[in-house]
């Protein structure tokens, strides 16, 4: 009897967790959309929404999308980074430097990884078949 009750509780807990994570995802999406929309009108309000979004994500162990969210938000002041208005973007020696115009902080991202990925997917030339045991000369 006790074991059965425990399993029901565990089952319920699992469902709660799933529902909570789904709710959190919806809330994060809403906050991100709102932050981007509000950014044109009010910087502080937008930063507060981003702060809230990050807090929810951390609490529920939800990963924010790297390209869509993480690289478009200032780590220091939570401002939504828009090239030309709130951010200055420069490319220098294979690195992308994003400068926040609100607080003055900057971040560097490698530009090579993407180039390699793009080159690998588009300009892949089929090589002649070689035996797998043969090692390249050193
Ligand atoms: Zn900033």
Describe the structure.
- With 138 residues, the protein is of the alpha+beta class.
- It has one domain.
- It has three helices and three strands, in the order ααβββα.
- A three-stranded antiparallel β-sheet has the order 1-2-3.
- α1 packs antiparallel against α2 (43-59).
- It is elongated.
- The termini are far apart.
- Zinc ion binds next to loops.
Q: Mean pLDDT, nearest integer?
A: 77
Alpha carbon gyration radius: 23 Å
Hetero groups = zinc ion
Number of separate strands: 3
**Helix fraction bin:** 40-55%
SSE-based structural type: alpha+beta
Beta-sheet strand percentage? 5-15%
Shape: elongated
Spatial gap, N to C terminus: 69 Å
Largest sheet: 3 strands, antiparallel
Low confidence ranges? 121-138
Strand arrangement within the widest β-sheet reads 1-2-3
> Counting H and I runs of at least 4 residues, what is the number of helices?
3
The quaternary structure here is single chain
Total individual domains = 1
H and E string: HHEEEH
Pfam families: Rpr2
Family: Belongs to the eukaryotic/archaeal RNase P protein component 4 family.
Biased composition (Basic residues): 1-20
Keywords: Metal-binding, tRNA processing, Zinc
Strand-helix topology:
Layout (H helix, E strand, L loop, with lengths): L1 H37 L4 H17 L27 E6 L2 E6 L5 E5 L1 H11 L16
Antiparallel strand pairs: 1-2, 2-3
Bound molecules: zinc ion.
The site of zinc ion has 8 residues, from loops.
């Amino acid at each position: 009897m006790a074991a059965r009750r425990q399993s029901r509780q565990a089952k319920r807990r699992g469902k709660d967790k799933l529902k909570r994570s789904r709710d959190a995802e919806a809330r994060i999406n809403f906050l991100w959309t709102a932050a981007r929309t509000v950014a044109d009108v009010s910087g502080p309000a937008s930063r507060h929404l981003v702060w809230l979004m990050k807090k929810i994500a951390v609490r529920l162990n939800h990963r924010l999308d790297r390209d869509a969210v993480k690289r478009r938000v200032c780590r220091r002041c939570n401002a939504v980074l828009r090239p030309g208005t709130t951010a200055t973007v420069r490319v220098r020696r294979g690195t992308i430097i994003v400068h926040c115009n609100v607080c003055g902080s900057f971040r560097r991202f490698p530009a090579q990884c993407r180039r390699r990925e793009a080159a690998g997917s588009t300009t892949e030339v089929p090589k002649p078949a070689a035996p797998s045991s043969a090692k390249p000369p050193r």
